[in-house]
Amino acid sequence: MLTSTTNDITGHRVTRHIGVVRGVTVRSRNLVSDAIGGVQSMLGGRVGAYVKLAEAGRQEAFDLLLEHARAAGGNAVLAIRYESNEIMPGVTEVLAYGTAVVVEPG
Length: 106
Description:
Number of helices: 2
Shape: elongated
CATH architecture: 2-Layer Sandwich
CATH topology: Translation Initiation Factor IF3
Distance between the termini: 17 Å
C-alpha cells in the first residue's frame, strides 16, 4: 500500500478515486504511564511515557486507515492527515484519514 501526505505519488498516476477512508481509535492513559509521565514532567523535557502512548494511537489509527482503504479496493492513500481530540480527561480519540485511490506506475 502506497501512502502519501501529498495529493500525488511521483512516478504513479491515479486511475481511480475511491473516496475518503479513515481509521479511528480511542486510547486511554493508564495508572503506570500517568505515574511515569508525572515524574518525567516534573523533571522537564521529553515525556517519553506519553510519547509512546501518542505514537501507539497514531500507529493504530494509521493501520486501520490502510485496512479501510484495502477493503474499499484501493492500493494507495493520498493526502493523509491526523487529528486528535480529548473525549474526556485521559481518553483521546485519534483519527487518520485520506483519499483511497488506485494508482499505476507511469
